[in-house]
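Aim 2 progress update. The chain analyzed this quarter is reproduced below.
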Amino acid sequence: MMIMKNFFLSLKTTVWTLFILVCLFFLGSYLMPVHRQIFSPMNEDILMNWAVRTALPNLWHTWWFFAALLGLGLLTVNTLVCSFQAVKGRWTRSDFLLRISPQVVHAGFLLILLAHLFSAGWGYKLSGMMPEGGFGRLPEDRALALQQIRIQNDSSGYVSDWEATVAIYENDSLIQSGVLGPNKPFFYKGVGIYLKNLNFERGPAAFLMVVKDPGAYWALAGGLLFLLGSMILLVLKWKKA
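Predicted structure tokens:
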């Protein structure tokens, strides 16, 4: 038990884990473009679905991904054990900020990992072409309707801008409508709807993407905590020097 505790409390564990993770990510950055047919679906689905449906059957090319997940798990335990050990000691008013700031950084890091876990396991990502007047079912007893597509042409007759009106239904009742445009998504209860492209070959149609990311706010909170803790620690170290 003591050996395990010392292992997770050791700074060497953190450094070596980070080094191995960097090596795995470098390897992944090479393998992903080489095997696009395996890794491209990662952008079209949530991570957990891709891992089960695509990564596991192609383990020869994706082993580094699962090794990186194990490394992140080890780093999480390492962070929790170190934080618990630091908080457990006696605190004084004079060193409060110096001792709490690393724990704020750790909390931010853990929240970011938790956010990715929520997004990978409980979100969804749907995309496809929908004709004007079309209707599509969404999870959670919701539906999406594409009510109207509008385009604007410049003096030369080229398309200069476009937008689409969509509506969200819950239990077959209209809940809310919104207008989509380039870099102008529409959000409803944590679900983002994006207009990616238009197509007029078979009548007006829009390529829509619907994304639910339950970890977005957790990631934002984690990023702010990480930044706050790092800034406090940097200022305190600078003053001490």
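The chain is about 55% helix and 25% strand. The mean pLDDT is 90. These observations will guide the mutagenesis experiments scheduled for the next reporting period.
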